[in-house]
């Protein structure tokens, strides 16, 4: 059963490995992320918490991970993405809550101005007219 799951995950998540005997720690960073994603999404979670989901990945692997998070969100899973990557946040989020120095700086809707989000990320509070 495990071997069948691995083969299916390898195909569905485009995991590049020499075989089922290869240890996850010997895979590239992108393929390690895909293994974790496959493991977590295989159980069809109600909530997915992804912390820095594409940090350190090459462009192709990062785009794939983002695509899978979007598919998961669109299938009805609540996704909480924690990231310092503004582009990633803008692409994946329905709402953006920015925390700086342990304080909530503001909550913005999808499609908000990236400059406003970036300002919040640097510690600038939202003005009442911007909220």
UniProtKB/TrEMBL annotation:
**What are the recorded GO MF terms, alphabetically?**
ATP binding
Task: Give the keywords, sorted.
Answer: ATP-binding, Nucleotide-binding
Which InterPro entries did the record assign?
Answer: ABC_carbohydrate_import_ATPase, P-loop_NTPase
This protein is called Uncharacterized protein
Q: Which organism is it from?
A: bioreactor metagenome
């Amino acid at each position: 059963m495990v071997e069948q799951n691995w083969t299916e995950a390898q195909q569905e998540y485009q995991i590049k490995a020499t075989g089922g005997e290869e240890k996850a720690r010997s895979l590239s960073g992108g393929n390690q992320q895909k293994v974790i994603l496959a493991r977590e999404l295989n159980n069809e979670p109600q909530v997915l918490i992804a912390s820095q989901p594409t940090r350190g990945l090459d462009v192709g692997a990062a785009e794939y991970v983002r695509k899978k998070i979007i598919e998961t969100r669109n299938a009805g899973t609540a996704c909480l993405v924690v990231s310092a990557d503004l582009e990633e946040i803008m692409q994946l989020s329905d709402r953006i809550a920015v925390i700086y120095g342990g304080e909530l700086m503001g909550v913005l809707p999808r499609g908000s101005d990236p400059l406003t989000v970036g300002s919040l990320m640097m510690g600038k509070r939202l003005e009442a007219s911007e909220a």
